[in-house]
Each structure stands twice: as C-alpha cells, then as structure tokens.
C-alpha cells in the first residue's frame, strides 16, 4: 500500500476519533448514532495509524507531501 494520508490529516483524524470516543463513553451520544460514531472513530484511527485511506485511493486523493 502506498501512503496517502499526510501528517496534518493524521492529526485531524486522531482528534476526531478521540472526540467520537469521548462522546460515546461519556453517554452524550447513545444508541445507534453512538455506535456509528464509535465505528467511524475506529476507522479514522486505523487509517491514520497505517497512513492509508481506501477512499482517498478510490478518488485519487493524496495528502502526503510530494517527494
């Protein structure tokens, strides 16, 4: 896999994942929406850790600095 997630994008994804997790685990967002946010946060965290986003690849996007 070729990396397509830059460092700024990683920080934003990790921050969003933390916010989604806090909202779910504090009980602010519950039910189906809470579970959807938790799953979305997990996906954001995973894509930031592996530096690859399948949707970016599908649409030909790349936020990594050019080499």
Walkthrough of the structure:
The protein has 67 residues and is mainly α. Helices cover 67% and strands 0% of the residues. The chain has helices at 7-25, 31-50, 54-59. The longest helix has 20 residues, at 31-50. It is elongated, with a radius of gyration of 13 Å.
Give the SSE map.
Elements (H helix, E strand, L loop, with lengths): L6 H19 L5 H20 L3 H6 L8
Per DSSP E runs of 2 or more residues, the count of β-strands stands at: 0
Shape: elongated
Which oligomeric form is depicted? single chain
- The parts where pLDDT drops under 50 for at least 5 residues are none
What descriptive keywords fit this protein?
single chain, 67 residues, mainly alpha, 3 helices
């Amino acid at each position: 896999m070729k990396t397509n997630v830059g460092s700024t994008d990683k920080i934003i994804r990790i921050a969003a994942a933390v916010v989604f997790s806090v909202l779910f685990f504090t009980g602010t967002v519950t039910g189906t929406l809470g579970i959807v946010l938790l799953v979305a946060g997990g996906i954001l965290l995973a894509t930031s850790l592996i530096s690859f986003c399948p949707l970016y690849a599908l649409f030909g996007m790349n936020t990594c600095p050019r080499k």
